[in-house]
Design brief:
Length: 134
Amino acid sequence: MNWNKYLIQSLGALWIISCSNMEPLNDGERSIEVKGKISRSEVRSEFLRYESDIRYCYERKLVTRPNLKGKLVMKWMVDEEGRTRDINVLDSEINDKSVHSCLQSVIRKMSFNTSQAKDQVIISYPLEFVSTQL
C-alpha cells in the first residue's frame, strides 16, 4: 500500500500530516508576529483548532498538483470584538489562488479573546507546505 505523508511547517514548527493527525516536531511559536495584545500561544491554539481545515486547503490541491509545495505568510487584523478581517496573503511561493482563498476562509472563521486589547491586533502567520511520498 502506498501511503502519502504531508509535511506542513507552521509557526516555524514542522508538522507531519498523515490522514487525520498532526504531530509537532519542534516548537516554533516565535515566528508568529503579533502587533497588539493577543499572545502568540493564543494564535497558535486557534490555528491548531482549525488544523484539519488548513490541511484540507493543501491536500485538495495535491490531487491535481502533486508537486505543490512552498512557503507563504498570511496576515490579518483582529477587531475589538475578536473577529478576523482584512485577511491577505502577504507572501507566497505556492502561487495558487484556490489554496490562498481556502486559507483566507479558514482564518475568517477564527476568533480571538480581545478583552486585553484596546486596539486592533495585526497577526502574520507563516506556513510551509511540503508533500512527500513514503
